[in-house]
Structures are given as C-alpha cells and as structure tokens.
Design goal:
Radius of gyration: 16 Å
Oligomer: single chain
Order of helices and strands: HEEEEHEHHHEE
Distance between the termini: 28 Å
Strand content: 15-25%
Number of helices: 5
Helix content: 25-40%
Strand order of the largest sheet: 3-2-1-4-5-7-6
Structural class: alpha/beta
C-alpha cells in the first residue's frame, strides 16, 4: 500500500484537499479553501503561513497564485505547501506560461499584456513574477517537489503541472 493510501486509510478513507485562491463559482466539493483576500474562501491567510497542521492535506490545488508573489517569496510559499501535504501528497499548480504569452504578443495579440501585467485594483491580484516550463520545474524542484508531469491547460497561455512531495529533502 502506498504511503498516501495508508494515510487515507487512517482517516477512514477521507481525502483532504486544499484549494488556494479558489475561483468564483468553482465547484470545490468538500475541499478546504484559502485566500489572502477576506471573504473569498473558508480561511483567510497568507499561503506562506497557513493555519493548518503539518501533513494534513493529500492534495493541494495552487492555481494562478504563485505569479502574484515576488520571486524570492515563491520558495516560502512552496515550502509551506510541502509542509501541509501528507507523505505521497500531490500539488497541482498553474501559472501563466511566459513563453506562450511572448509568442502571442509577437504574433500581434496585445490583449495578452493583460495576462502579463494583471491590471487589477486589488494589489494582491498584481502579477509579480513570470514562469516558463523550465523555471517553474526548477522552482518546484528546489522546494522539494519532483519534476512531475505537465497537464493540459484549462486557460489560454497557461502552464499546468502535477508534482508530488515524495522527494526526501530539498536541494
């Protein structure tokens, strides 16, 4: 039996999911939600200091949040996610793909600038860093995740990966 299956068995077969930065109207099922912006999730907290016990979640969905952090803050957020993931747990992450954004821009699609610069009134919504497939994989690996698998995008200009927290130690 895999380690994550053993943890699930101890919990009576209940899989614990965390969605960080849930989208409005998103079907969350029985997942726990967290957002830094008040009133948008069950828990209001910064992803770099989450109010959950270690190894509590089997899966974390971290979609279009990492790019809102300064580059030097990404390792702190990912370390905190790794802390709350149970052994054998999974992180699903999505960020804008800067390579696809650049290709669209060079092809004349000026609207892609909205994806890059994220002109929102709320400062928490501003993009502060961008990732390519290579830089995202390296950032995740340095935070203690494996290189994972690419997933199909659900939005234009999106880069999605599924990685596990099985790596024994950070680099």
């Amino acid at each position: 039996m895999a380690e994550s299956e053993a943890v699930n068995a101890e919990r009576g077969g209940v899989m614990r999911r965390l969605i960080i930065g849930p989208k409005a109207g998103e079907d969350i099922g029985d997942a726990v939600t967290l957002d830094v912006r008040p009133g948008l999730a069950q828990w209001t907290a910064d992803v770099r200091e989450m109010p959950f016990p270690a190894e509590w979640f089997d899966e974390v969905l971290f979609s279009h949040v990492l790019e809102h952090l300064e580059r030097d803050q990404a390792p702190l957020a990912l370390a905190e996610i790794r802390r709350v993931l149970a052994p054998g747990g999974w992180l699903q992450i999505a960020v804008p793909d800067m390579v696809l954004c650049a290709k669209s821009l060079l092809a004349g699609d000026m609207d892609v600038l909205l994806n890059i610069y994220s002109p929102h009134d709320d400062a928490a919504q501003h993009h502060r860093w961008g990732y390519t497939r290579e830089t995202l994989a390296e950032t995740l690996y340095r935070a203690g995740f494996d290189h994972g698998n690419m997933l199909p995008p659900t939005e234009p200009h999106e880069l999605r990966m599924m990685v596990s927290a099985d790596k024994a130690a950070t680099v």
